[in-house]
């Protein structure tokens, strides 16, 4: 068995001819000794040393061979898979590694605990700059097992859903892995979401329990997490238990659902055998915004997701064994799932958990952390970079950044100024900067340079190249495939890949309608893209009604829904406009009831509060403009395209307005906007 798995390891490293993880391919230990060797040579033989261009070609021309080999070699199967894939994009049917069984927490923990139990794999950087907390992999495994046993003792089993409403911390990571260990499905909810938003997610997922903290601490401020959970679960009859971890010393009011987490965990065993799970059993749900309707709970499953997140982590960031990987995303977003938790831990990386903000207590925070922890890869968001570049360069330069090898950006298009600042000031011009394009739906990075393999220099502000197995395609207005360079169109992907979402929780038809119906046979991303003359991809941004505020996706319809709940507001329209730091901000056009008792100032204040309680603070529109009516087509559709132009003051180029019911509405709105701007200037 050992020789067969070794052969597989050798095969893969030869195949890709670049850095390997340096892991031994023996299978020691109880969990591992029950594992099957990789499937017979049919998956892994015959392919010889290939240059990466050929490897990419192979990954799209013979995906079964490519992904089958990768899965056999990189993951440890309790039972081998029988079929690489069974997918039909037009029906939204996506299955990978059929018949295979494994356990994701076993891959992330046990495997590495056996080989190097005392090595640190998590580093928590707390809000206040005290010494970082560095649990070893053995400690993380024990915490995960205690937590998994706690869940089981409270009647939570395979297939049950749990909400995790916690800021990033070792315990939050253990909570995700504990779910994975017993086959429960986690849905992490960003700890900045309101109680209504949390309740909506808990109800949709039918969560049996919530794991939270008494309070959070961020940027020196306390966040009342438990109070938010209390308000949310009042309307969630499915919730039987609320596990409360004590993050701060402040006393917590415990209600009848509440269970003190650390206390109950301490009496549980530190051993919990991982469940053997099917490749396609659910791993997690993660809610994200679309252009219509409520946030959708995207379904991700076990093996394909893990394989894809770990491979992209290795190849895009040039991760090498022993590196310290610093992704500053929160675990409430997909970036935190794939590149703080699952990808790095599967690869045996030491992964950084950053609890604070880029400017607390000062704008040198990130770089002080890089120096102290000797971080090798730093992965962050353009919005933070745009904020930091406003400060003096000395905030960066006073710290030693010589450990950095790769820089990465994610969440929104990175503008040239931020790209160059990151590359030359932070990276001293010597670290490749990878602009990584992907989505909650894609599970992992889909388009990005791969610096270890790229002979061509990286082009600033371009995601550039598809990852293995990803075949992007750009489609024009008439549904035609655009093969000429420099023409922008809708970005689609023409072949399935293992990391992609499998469904929308409780609504598979919506999954099909959203992603596979607009361009039949293709996965539609919702983004626009251009192919350059050199054959590289540049992402131009969303082409639907989704906006991107500081890298956080939000549907304008969600904000409108919240605003429309106000009794004095018959109608609203929200559009996104550019913002220097946040990338985009919402701009709300509000029609008020024609009623003397309505005081606009009071209503607008109430609208702000409404969005904050229904969604989250970051969703509150930056601008509110009261208008008499909205521009509509003859069939009654609001023309948001026109409103966006008005808000951006580009009315000289309104495009086709012939379908407007009454074109005089534009002049009316422009006049209101002028008054609004004057008022703001005089304030
Ligand atoms: C946008 C975040 C340009 C895009 C991982 C996408 C980007 C949405 C980039 C997904 C990038 C993400 N360049 N745009 N490098 N990365 N986006 O689901 O519009 O939170 O569709 O996933 O962010 O956001 P999500």
Q: TL;DR?
A:
By secondary structure, this protein is of the alpha/beta class. The protein has 22 helices and 29 strands.
Topology at a glance:
Layout: H1 2-16, H2 30-33, H3 41-44, H4 52-61, H5 63-74, E1 83-88, E2 93-98, E3 101-102, H6 104-115, E4 122-125, H7 137-153, E5 161-165, H8 170-182, E6 185-188, H9 195-205, E7 209-213, E8 216-218, E9 221-223, H10 225-233, E10 241-245, E11 258-260, H11 261-266, E12 277-278, E13 282-288, E14 296-301, H12 303-317, E15 324-327, H13 334-346, E16 350-354, H14 365-373, E17 377-380, H15 382-388, H16 394-397, E18 406-410, H17 416-426, E19 433-436, E20 472-475, E21 488-493, E22 503-504, H18 508-516, E23 523-531, E24 537-542, E25 546-549, E26 552-555, H19 556-564, E27 571-579, E28 583-591, H20 600-614, E29 623-627, H21 640-647, H22 664-682
Parallel strand pairs: 4-16, 5-6, 5-7, 7-10, 10-11, 15-16, 15-17, 17-18, 18-19, 28-29
Antiparallel strand pairs: 1-2, 3-12, 8-9, 13-14, 14-22, 20-21, 21-23, 23-24, 25-26, 27-28
The structure holds 5'-O-[(S)-ethoxy(hydroxy)phosphoryl]adenosine.
Residues 288, 333-335, 410-413, 435-440, 463, 525-527, 539, 541-542, 548, 553 line the site of 5'-O-[(S)-ethoxy(hydroxy)phosphoryl]adenosine.
Task: Write structural notes for this entry.
This protein is of the alpha/beta class and 683 residues long. It is built from 22 helices and 29 strands. Helix 4 crosses helix 5 and helix 6 packs across helix 8. The longest helix has 19 residues. It is globular and about 70 Å long. It starts with a helix and ends with a helix. 5'-O-[(S)-ethoxy(hydroxy)phosphoryl]adenosine binds next to helix 13, strand 19, strand 23 and strand 24.
